[in-house]
Amino acid sequence: MERPTARKKETQAVEAPAGITRTTIAYNDDLMLCHFHLKKGVTIPFHRHPSAQNGYLIKGKLLMKWESGKQFLAEPGDGWCFNSNESHGVEVIEESEIVECFAPCRVEYIPK
């Protein structure tokens, strides 16, 4: 399972859940890079997964939330990190564009 290089324009975007479009760019067993568009008003409820996750906000505004109560208002140029199995969620304050990495690869995000 490996796609070490890819052009974003040649990869297919997937909308899931509604209001969030994900394009999986490159990955191997250990690491995955994804590009996301998030519509204003979308809420991603608290969830967790085995992959550690970090991200970078290209445009827009997001309220990142940890189930512990910590919050972070991300603006363009900001980044964040969620540990493996750390419960987290997001409120999309403005239409946003982000890139995120997952380690190890999230197999459910591998293009079909």
Helix/strand layout:
Blueprint: E1 14-15, E2 20-27, E3 32-38, E4 43-47, E5 52-66, E6 71-74, E7 79-82, E8 88-103
Give a written overview of the molecule.
The protein is mostly beta strands and 112 residues long. It has one domain: Jelly Rolls. It is 0% helix and 54% strand. It is built from no helices and 8 strands. The chain has strands at residues 14-15, 20-27, 32-38, 43-47, 52-66, 71-74, 79-82, 88-103. Strands 1, 2, 3, 4, 5, 6, 7 and 8 form an 8-stranded antiparallel β-sheet that branches. A hairpin with a 4-residue loop joins strand 1 (14-15) and strand 2. It starts with 13 loop residues before the first strand and ends in a 9-residue tail after the last strand. The mean pLDDT is 95.
In short:
The protein is an all-beta fold and about 110 residues long. It contains no helices and eight strands.
**Sheet with most strands:** 8 strands, antiparallel
> What is the overall shape?
globular
How large is the share of residues in beta strands? over 45%
The number of distinct helices, counting runs of at least 4 residues, comes to 0
CATH superfamily: Jelly Rolls
Tags for this model:
single chain; 112 residues; mainly beta; Jelly Rolls; 0% helix; 54% strand
